Predict the structure.
Amino acid sequence: MKRIKYLKQYISFNYKMMRDYNIDQMTRDFPAYLREVLKGMNNGVLGPVYRRLIKTAPEPLLVICHARTGSNFLLWLLSSHPYIAHNGEPFGTNVLVHSWIISRIREIGPLDYLKEGFQRKSNEQVIAFKFLYLQFEPEYAKRWSIPDLEEVRKYLSGALDMKVIHLKRRNRLENLISLRIAEVTKKYILFNPKKRVGDIQIELTPEECSAEFEKIAALEKHYAELFAGHPLLNIYYEDLYMNTQSEGKRILEFLDVKQRPLRERTLKQNIRPIREVLKNYDELKGHFAGTVWENMFSD
């Protein structure tokens, strides 16, 4: 009965999101949308058969990153491959706002909740999921009143055969700007270019820029060391965005799955030069000239 209850809540939770997603995808690229529908039908109809015939579990792929480094772009890109599925962000804020999910995590524990997402859905070989750096910190679990995620962190860092993609963004200023724009728009993923907001301007202080740049550098170093024993692939958002197919080929080689062209599904939310978005760009550029962060302001 509990499984039926959670299934109903899951369907209700996803209805609006999937409705908007389907409309956006049909409008943007109908042939790609049709291929995805057929893949979904295959999963839905033959999924139980696959689960019986294919005894081995799909290989989990962990993506670790800071917020606004293109993780949604990466996950949706990977899921365009017929043998790769993605489980999103198991402990993301967009998930934890729902009390029924909080209840589920408390009921079975964070680790078993995470492992539920690794279960085979159809014939996928890989199930990708992501963790933001901050989600490993005790304060994050405390904020959401869920059991500490330390057990999950230890499991993931100790599973040395689990493949890990460490996703980074070279330009930390653009990273910070993207974060501030998302905080204003409350939109963290974009499928339809017509929904892009193109008139937002923000202002940043030198102090908050320095603090953010240094924080990201420290986090990248810490988590690179934490997962150093794993099969690890470093990916930069700028390379993935500009050279999607070549970077996609490199990722598929790392995952040891059949090479296929990967199709972009999400869109970049801000396509304006950062000078147009950041009101005090010249002031900040002058402040950081001659420092280790001056390359963040190259234009």
Notes: The chain is about 55% helix and 10% strand. The beta strands are 59-65, 84-86, 126-132, 163-168, 232-236. The CA atoms of residues 90 and 114 lie 7 Å apart. Confidence is low (pLDDT under 50) at residues 9-13.
